[in-house]
Design a protein that fits this description.
There is one protein chain. The protein has helices at 14-22, 33-46, 53-74, 83-86, 90-120, 147-158, 178-192, 197-200, 207-223, and strands at 4-6, 11-13, 194-196, 226-230, 237-241. It has 258 residues and is mostly helical. Among the domains are: 4-74; 178-241, Arc Repressor Mutant, subunit A (Orthogonal Bundle), CATH 1.10.10. Strand 1 and strand 2 (11-13) form a beta hairpin. Helix 1 runs parallel beside helix 3 (53-74) and helix 7 packs across helix 9 (207-223). It starts with a strand and ends in a 17-residue tail after the last strand. Mean pLDDT is 78; it is low at 254-258.
């Protein structure tokens, strides 16, 4: 809102007055608030029909800010002491607090020792030693060991340990490439027409062959030779050969091996 106020120290918009007071260019003590309020009330009486709720609330906010600023200047401020004076005694207090914690620790430890002494007073120690004639003889660990056995044990300890070798002779690896499977499928699919992936891989025995056939179908689909479809979720994958005059180029096919 634009509301002009006239005071002995300032004359102009009320927003500018608040800004000047905030930057200490105008002393708030030199600005009487009564003329400002009376002027706004007179303005409301003259233009009661045109004043909006937003303008009214804005002036109330500005008036509250002016009242707060002036009250802060009028009320006595607390004595500004030196920072060092404010912290006087803090070091002594910390030392006393640390000593109090140490004393509490010692007191707790003393209570623990007192409890142990009380429990120990209920026990009766053995006053006599080992019975007469009772002899404890440690076993001879070298009984029955010959020098030859000791030498053999020494030789076993200093000999070089064989490097462990993991043998894979029993593992059978089927070398199946995607490129070869692509060529094979390109020869079979034109005569089969539309077929499911389950029917296409029915005669395969190993899992790696099924995987390679699936990768080969993806390669053929990427090259634009086959069309893949699935009627429902988790349903059979339908494979259909698309008539194409161009041959199958396996030069760009990834050579996956299983």
């Amino acid at each position: 809102m634009t509301f002009v106020v006239t005071t002995p120290a300032f004359s102009g918009p009320v927003e500018l007055l608040v800004q000047l007071i905030s930057t200490h260019e105008v002393d708030v003590l030199e600005v009487p608030l009564a003329p400002v309020i009376d002027g706004f009330v007179a303005h409301l009486r003259e233009a009661a029909d045109t004043v909006t709720l937003e303008e009214l609330s804005e002036f109330l906010l500005i008036g509250a800010i002016l009242v707060e600023m002036k009250s802060q200047r009028l009320l006595p401020e607390p004595d500004d002491g030196e920072p060092d004076e404010e912290f006087v005694g803090w070091e002594e207090r910390d030392v006393l607090l640390a000593r109090l914690l140490e004393l509490r620790t010692y007191a707790g430890l003393a209570d623990a020792f007192a409890s142990l002494f009380e429990r120990a007073s209920r026990s009766f120690p053995r006053l006599r030693g080992v019975n007469e004639g009772f002899v404890v003889e440690p076993p001879d660990l070298l009984t029955g060991i010959t020098p030859a056995q000791v030498a053999l044990a020494y030789l076993r300890g200093i000999e070089e340990k064989p490097v462990p070798v993991v043998r894979l002779d029993h593992v059978t690896v089927d070398a199946v490439t995607v490129a070869e499977t692509v060529v094979t499928l390109a020869q079979r699919l034109p005569s089969l027409g539309r077929v499911t992936f389950r029917e296409l891989t029915a005669g395969l025995e190993t899992r790696i062959e099924v995987i390679v056939h699936f990768l080969a179908l993806l390669e053929l689909c990427k090259l634009g030779h086959v069309e893949l479809g699935q009627g429902r979720t988790f349903g059979d994958v339908q494979v259909a050969w698309i008539d194409s005059d161009r041959g199958v180029d396996v030069g760009g096919v990834d050579l996956y091996e299983g």
